Amino acid sequence: MLIGPMAVGKSAIGQQLAQQLGVRFVDTDAVIVAGHGSIAEIFAGRGEHAFREIEARTVADAVEEADGTPTVISLGGGAVLDSGTQQLIGRCTVVYLECDAETVADRIARNSGRPLLAGDAMGRWKAMFATRRPVYERLADITLDVRHGSIPELGGRLEAAL
Ligand code: S3P
């Protein structure tokens, strides 16, 4: 299970790791989009609260389905704020992808469909990271510094750390 702030590369590194290990990969944001439409649309039409409910259900289903089937699951950056989700992911090996604002600045600036980064994207990212960071750190079994290295290199380092 990969956790960490927005735009840190949870999906790309998760996909890479799953390929290396030859196991299933589930990106919960992608599951949400497939079932409910784009994240921007969900936020705009139904609000963040509705998104969080959908997200918590999606994570619970993914953890349930992974029971007995080796799976790499990547979560959205805010999924770990839900207390039910925090309990559920205790059943998983949790990898926190650690980075800083500078590393993800380009991706944040492009902001591809992340409603919570509308406006001052960098300022919002930093503020969210400041409040969420202790949660990521508390839940992590493994912390992977993703500031340097290509996706395959990071996948290799993560596999070695598991
Ligand atoms: C969010 C992160 C996004 C997505 C949604 C909300 C957040 O996922 O779930 O826009 O609250 O941090 P990524 O972490 O994949 O960008």
UniProtKB/TrEMBL annotation:
Its EC number is 2.7.1.71. It comes from the Bacteria. PROSITE patterns: SHIKIMATE_KINASE (PS01128). Mg(2+) binds at S11. ATP binds at A7, V8, G9, K10, S11, A12, R114. It catalyses: shikimate + ATP = 3-phosphoshikimate + ADP + H(+). Keywords: Amino-acid biosynthesis, Aromatic amino acid biosynthesis, ATP-binding, Cytoplasm, Kinase, Magnesium, Metal-binding, Nucleotide-binding, Transferase. GO terms for molecular function: shikimate kinase activity. Catalyzes the specific phosphorylation of the 3-hydroxyl group of shikimic acid using ATP as a cosubstrate. Monomer. This is Shikimate kinase. It comes from Pseudarthrobacter enclensis. The gene is aroK.
